[in-house]
Write a structure and sequence with these properties.
alpha/beta; eight-stranded parallel sheet; five-stranded antiparallel sheet; 16% strand; 20 strands; binds alpha-D-glucopyranose
Length: 542
């Protein structure tokens, strides 16, 4: 177990993301719950993770599956109670697993009592907790669009003003310019810290310092000032791990966010690699062929750019993204090998790896007919593009590749009905491949994807070069191979990954033939070629 009283304990840690709605149902409601997570803590302890990032479980009307919070200090009854949360925190602690809560501080739900009061009168003390502008009905202050479609402005007749929302209309943006609002958020965070949570993930944190008059949404002028205040008033009073979601982060900004002096956050999620699949300047749905060489170069830039002066988060998927084995891997005959390869590629790097639930089983995307999608972003996009005249097949193609519901199908525990996720009707369809891909089949199988992740996590704890070594990209232009080297004061590590359904000819660099093999997804094979989706990690003394 990591010693979490040490500052920066998280530099050796591995996190696991739970999307609670889809993890484990214990009541037959069709929706996962906190008791379900408690029941599966031993599974996570076996995997070896140190932190659970829990997507929001706070009281919420669930317009955006909990990313619309109506009470930051209450658990939504669909998930359980505050006492279940206390049990989860205690059960995690016993196993060396900290709970990282997902704080949505950029916006609240329109059902939050602050907003309910704010919308009644311009003189209400809560009015200024939100972002309002004058205007006339039908003529919003400007043409800004919300991320989930439509205008970013919503008219409220009672106050004869528009409020600003970067996401759904039911997610009004909070006004961080107001010091009383900020204090109220800090007090809430301290309240959760007192309950024993060990970290926070900060939803769209780079969007809090908005300035809609200048059409600024992310990276607003006061962003880092707000973050330093937030951090000093809350996180720095404990030994927490914090990660901000920052779609607008570049390397210089990430150095500020993850400054080793701890003045802001531990790290951010940046999305440079993630956005490589879309046409530049277009929407996430406008796909382009995956640029493999760019992927390598991007990882290399971030590894080198933050080494010694910041810290990376390492992830390939989450609840908003497609399953990595279906995206960068090959989810047909090479599913197992490519899932292991992607894990090798990522877990060989410096930073904190995040495993998204089911990734450790090699869970895949799902293709649903439009009626079966549940995600509001997907449904809105379908309607907007239909209205704009896009071809049905193109729209469905984008959804199958990129819908957030790909990641949100229920966790596949075993081959019983509904994959052991629920005794009721699941809120979102279970992927029919659960009879072949499930946890029960993998936990005791030494060759499974699960066992491979378990080994990778254990290696991170026993091989300091993984957490402290520098990074050099080899073969930068090779169209199939991702090869890199890590080095600390005592040894060198070589990570080799063949991103291909075919064999690739390749010789190990000089001096590596007798190196120790730490892990690989095939038995050692003949020199001079790599098998389809073959991956390995080798180590040798300096
Ligand atoms: C983040 C979350 C996403 C949510 C959005 C609005 O991007 O990850 O799920 O819909 O913020 O809160």
């Amino acid at each position: 177990m990591l010693d979490k009283t040490q500052k920066n304990w998280w530099r050796q840690a591995v996190a696991y993301q739970i999307y609670p709605k889809s993890f484990q149902d214990t009541t037959g409601s069709g929706t996962g719950d906190l008791q379900g997570i408690i029941r599966r803590l031993d599974y996570l302890a076996r995997l070896g993770v140190d932190v659970i990032w829990l997507s929001p479980v706070f009281a919420s009307p669930q317009v955006d599956n909990g990313y619309d919070i109506s009470d930051y200090r209450a658990i939504d009854p669909i998930y359980g109670s505050l006492s279940d949360m206390d049990t989860l925190i205690a059960g995690g602690k016993k196993r060396g697993i900290g709970i990282m809560l997902d704080l949505v501080l950029n916006h609240s739900s329109d059902q939050h009592r602050w907003f309910q009061a704010a919308r009644t009168s311009r003189d209400d003390p809560y009015h200024d907790y939100y972002v309002w502008r004058d205007g006339k009905p039908g003529t919003p202050p400007n043409d800004m669009k919300a991320s989930f479609g439509g205008s970013a402005w919503e008219w409220v007749p009672e106050v004869q003003q528009y409020y600003f929302h970067q996401f759904a209309p039911q997610q009004p943006d909070l006004n961080w310019e107001n010091p009383r609002l900020r204090r109220e958020l800090y007090d809430m965070i301290l309240w959760w810290m007192d309950r024993g949570v060990e970290g926070f993930r900060l939803d769209v944190i780079d969007q809090i310092a908005k300035d809609p008059d200048k059409k600024i949404t992310n990276n607003g002028p006061r962003l880092h000032e707000f973050l330093r205040e937030l951090s000093a008033e809350t996180f720095q009073k404990g030994c927490l791990v914090t990660v901000g979601e920052a779609w607008g982060a570049d390397i210089p900004r990430a150095r500020l966010y993850s400054n080793p002096d701890g003045s802001e956050l531990s790290m951010v999620f940046q999305f440079e690699q993630i956005m490589l699949d879309q046409q530049p300047g277009k929407e996430k749905w406008d796909l382009q062929p995956l640029p493999f060489v760019e992927l390598k170069k991007s990882f290399a830039r971030w590894q080198q750019g933050l080494h010694g002066c910041g810290f990376n988060s390492l992830f390939l998927n989450n609840h908003d993204l497609p399953r990595t084995v279906s995206h960068w891997g090959s989810d047909g005959v090479w599913r197992v090998q490519s899932a292991k390869l992607l894990a090798t590629m990522l877990h060989g790097m410096e930073g904190m790896p995040y495993i998204y639930q089911g990734e450790e089983l090699g869970m895949t995307n799902i293709s649903l007919p439009i009626e079966e999608y549940r995600d509001l972003e997907s449904i809105n996009m379908y309607q907007e593009r239909k209205a704009a005249g896009y071809a049905e097949a193109d729209i469905m193609n984008s959804l199958h590749a990129k819908s957030r519901d790909n990641a949100r199908t229920p966790m596949q525990w075993d081959d019983s009905p509904n994959a052991g996720f629920t005794a009721g009707t699941p809120w979102l369809k279970v992927n029919p491949n659960y009879t072949d891909i499930n946890a029960a089949q993998q936990v005791d199988d030494p060759d499974s994807v699960f066992s491979y992740y378990r080994q990778l996590i254990a290696l991170r704890k026993s091989h300091p070069v993984l957490t402290e070594g520098d990074f050099t990209l080899l073969e930068p232009e090779h169209p199939k191979l991702f090869v890199y080297c890590r080095r600390n004061a005592t040894c060198q590590l070589l990570v080799v990954c063949n991103f291909s359904d075919n064999e690739t000819e390749w010789m190990l660099p000089d001096g590596w033939a007798d190196a120790e093999r730490l892990i690989g997804n095939y038995e050692p094979g003949p020199a001079g070629r790599l098998r389809p989706w073959e991956a390995m990690m080798l180590e040798r003394p300096l």
